[in-house]
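Technical note accompanying the year-one report. For the benefit of new consortium partners, we illustrate the data format agreed upon in the data management plan: each record pairs a sequence with a structure-token string. No post-processing was applied to the example shown here.
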Amino acid sequence: MGRIRDGIERYFNRVWYDDRQPGLGWRALSGLYGLAAREGTDEDGQGPPGPVIVVGNITVGGGGKTPVVAALATALVDDGWRVAIISRGYGGQSPSQPLRVQAGDNPHVCGDEPLLLARSTGCPVWVCRKRKLAMQAAFDAGAEVVMSDDGLQHTALPRSFEICVIDESRGFGNGRLLPAGPLRQPLERLERVDLVLRKRTGPSSERTDLPGMAFVIEPGKVYRLGDHQPVDLESRQPFDAVCGIANPDSFFATLTLLGLRFRRHAFPDHHAFRASELAGLDGPLVVTEKDAVKLEGLVGLPETLVLPIGARLPAAVLEAVKRHVGEFQKP
């Protein structure tokens, strides 16, 4: 099943991002998707009981949402706000009732990104198939601010502030709606969000064809999976770089910018790793934190090292979000 999914993902990435013309059938389906994706409204028409900040994107796959959520949540906590994070829990079992994520939870139950956020921020994290129920649980438990990891298209979730994140290296691909292109919504959707951010991996020339403010993804200190002991990555090269994220090239680009030598092993986003897939690699393995939470329960792996990343946001972004939270008034 994993190979089939991997093949499908590779096929669509070639069509969406490699200037390949999608077939007539895919373009026809995009038209139908556009009709189905027309925005609805919140089911009861009421605003949220407190600030609800949605960080999402209008393209399929990751664009840096989770690091942005972590950075904003940490900044608001540092200012004294009680912050909770909500998520659908993709990659887990997507419970129908709100589930509070604990640091020792199984990522196959709660999802890899919610578990990573719970560990990295220390904030309460709630997952539920219906994000509105997760939001209500968060406020009922004492949150003053709720951050939603993804959810721009989840119109049943009331929100007070929207942030759209764009992967600067990929942009909008061929600019078409699903399935002929990577867009979940038309580009006009950007006109209705409060902030547009562009994820940049390392220093690069600014793209003038994309809207919004650029932010940088920065690597943290490498540590060994299991005991969290710091490791000098330069002394361990060449190594096997393994990742199961939406845009594996962003991970490989970070390693390249660090001047490291490595062998690439890309898996589908949210991949459920098996020890047998990795046990034959020479190692050591270097993985993302998102993948690390799924690997820590496996046995028989080569030595595995974890490279954390973080989002360095412009001061103007932090100020805009903090101002909104401080001035929030329920309609």
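Partners are asked to follow this layout when depositing records. The chain has ten helices and 14 strands.
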